[in-house]
TrEMBL record:
Domain annotation HTH gntR-type: ranges: 1-44
Matching Pfam families: Aminotran_1_2 (PF00155)
Domain of life the protein comes from: Bacteria
InterPro entries the record matches: Aminotransferase_I/II_large, HTH_trans_reg/aminotransferase, PyrdxlP-dep_Trfase, PyrdxlP-dep_Trfase_major, PyrdxlP-dep_Trfase_small, Tscrpt_reg_HTH_GntR, WH-like_DNA-bd_sf, WH_DNA-bd_sf
UniProt protein name: Transcriptional regulator, GntR family protein
Gene3D superfamilies membership: Aspartate Aminotransferase, domain 1, Type I PLP-dependent aspartate aminotransferase-like (Major domain), Winged helix-like DNA-binding domain superfamily/Winged helix DNA-binding domain
UniProt record similarity statement: In the C-terminal section; belongs to the class-I pyridoxal-phosphate-dependent aminotransferase family.
Keywords from the named record: DNA-binding, Pyridoxal phosphate, Transcription, Transcription regulation
MF annotations from Gene Ontology: DNA binding; DNA-binding transcription factor activity; pyridoxal phosphate binding
Record-linked PANTHER family: HTH-TYPE TRANSCRIPTIONAL REGULATORY PROTEIN GABR
Amino acid sequence: MPTHRELARDHGIALATATRVYTELAEAGLVVGEPGRGTFVREQFGYDGVEPQRVAHGNRVADLAFNQPLDPGQADDLRDRLRELAATGDIETLLVQHPPGGRSTDRAVVATHLLDAGIDVAPENVLLTGGAQHGLDTVLRALARPGDVIAVDELTYPGIKLIADVQGIELAAVRHTDRGMSLGSLEKLCRERSVKAVYTMPTLHNPLGSVMGADDRSRMAAVARRYDTFLIEDATYAFLAPDAPAPLYAVAPERTVYVASLSKNLATGLRFGFLVAPTAHRHRLVRTLKASSWGTPPIIAALAVAWLRSGAITRWTHQRRIDARSRQHVAARVFSGLDYRAHPAAYFGWLRLPSGIRAVQMERTLAAQGILVSTADEFSVRPHPPAALRISLSGTPTLATLERVLETIRTELPP
């Protein structure tokens, strides 16, 4: 595409108007800006939309765009749990709508589970949701308004971008470092603008894999108190790093909403998540849950609680940690010599592409071979994303298959 100045000159419009045109085109997914190279038309080959038709399932070699870890024995365990539910004397309770946020007995089980995460909270401050995405949507609907500013990392979870777009909330990008969100940049933003909340992933940031240290967590809490903003802590992948510092909620419980789920250590299809809410915000969050879906379907809640009580979640969590480290070890070996960044316990990695290689071109080249990946523009809050891929490592069934797929990606890059 022409430069902003060329577009303005050729069409007789102001430079600011040309810039706004490119911004709207980028937001619509029609163009992508690449630093130092210009603006390019995105190839529209069915990789976007509500239900992307990427590659026919039978032609897929591997889906490295989405993490869906599963253990071979989980299907059999699901059958056993369903039989147990069918045989219980109170099965009629599964046909009755539970309270918004879940029953007190179920919330108590989750509160006990959270002790392993470093959170000691009363069951009434735990609210059950239909997954972490539902939890994030609930938090922003309850505690923010259209036009509010939410501080996020310059590369962040795509789900928060989608929620903000739908709700008319502005995401303000904050520089990210190897230690996590830059607290100097965050404080500068808070001085200059009215920041309603900070969305952060302090333990196993997605997609960069950083883990924020204890001192920085305390500093972030201090910044939030100084500017009277609340914190949204996304702990979706935190279970993979059990040695990480205490959650932000433990540091600033009066202003932190902790969001997590069992999607990655149980199954992505069983939508079971939970919020840990400060008492001051609990009523508003419950009302928002009541206005949307009321929370988690009773059958899903019963299955999840049964797995928590039996210790199955603890067992699968341990297996996930071993599996993630094994897969990450393979990725580090295959991508040795490339600009590959990942936490050793993460189920994903960040691969910066060599100069001259465009991410969307690499995405299509790999798709033609049945390999799905995510490009940086899905995660970028800024208008010019880096040329990089987010590689999910749990989308293939075996380590051997994963190694072959990663070797295929490696062969598409310069030596």
